[in-house]
């Protein structure tokens, strides 16, 4: 690993210890300082370094500590974001063994709150972002919702959703990942999750309508099929922006006339939406900052 990367990461971790911030911001800071790629993913060396602080704990203890840190980080960004829906999302994350959803090389660092590479050019999102996206759906507390999960990769987001919803339909465009996610979720007992390999742009019409839709890939606009498959009053949570480095994680609620009421949760970097129907990103463009925030302050991508 590049020494400047390690030094930048270590310095950023040290600074973060003095003031709480989201894990996404921590990664962005480290990689920006090191002059690394657009869509940051923690390498094995960096993950190992960060995992050492909790190496003496059991996976369950590490998971509980991570959940507590996520909640504290979100509250530090805006206490209003600590909603009942967030509590349910974090309770779900607290029961799910993330080590079963990451690459074998990253298992020891499964509870370092960072995204990881899962192969095929895809990533597993950091638990902080998974918690925020799940909470942003504001699903009913009675677990009656039907949710569509686009681009879940290894199936971790789907597992979290399955814990707070009645049914989850999962669409993953990378067929090997879809097959592995289906087998993993079946083996782990998530019987309410249905998996399909296909283009997430099209959603899953046969499973619609949905109470909520989570999309773990960025695009210039929300695919219309997803809007059509969402119930009135339902929410889509998806990173949207003019370029793949200028996206915001948006919470969008469907109005009776079919339009979307939008608010940003903060800046975010995701792998780009793939498929032949997605409008291309601009080479360079600025994020639209005119949309009022969901909360008083951003709760993702906070530096």
From TrEMBL:
The active site is at 125. It comes from the Bacteria. InterPro entries: PCMT (IPR000682), SAM-dependent_MTases_sf (IPR029063). GO terms for biological process: methylation; protein repair. Its EC number is 2.1.1.77. One of its GO terms (molecular function) is protein-L-isoaspartate (D-aspartate) O-methyltransferase activity. Its main location: cytoplasm. It catalyses: [protein]-L-isoaspartate + S-adenosyl-L-methionine = [protein]-L-isoaspartate alpha-methyl ester + S-adenosyl-L-homocysteine. The keyword Cytoplasm applies. It is found in: Cytoplasm. One of its GO terms (cellular component) is cytoplasm. Keywords: Cytoplasm, Methyltransferase, S-adenosyl-L-methionine, Transferase. Catalyzes the methyl esterification of L-isoaspartyl residues in peptides and proteins that result from spontaneous decomposition of normal L-aspartyl and L-asparaginyl residues. It plays a role in the repair and/or degradation of damaged proteins. Belongs to the methyltransferase superfamily. L-isoaspartyl/D-aspartyl protein methyltransferase family. This is Protein-L-isoaspartate O-methyltransferase. The lineage of its organism: Bacteria, Pseudomonadati, Pseudomonadota, Alphaproteobacteria, Sphingomonadales. The gene is pcm.
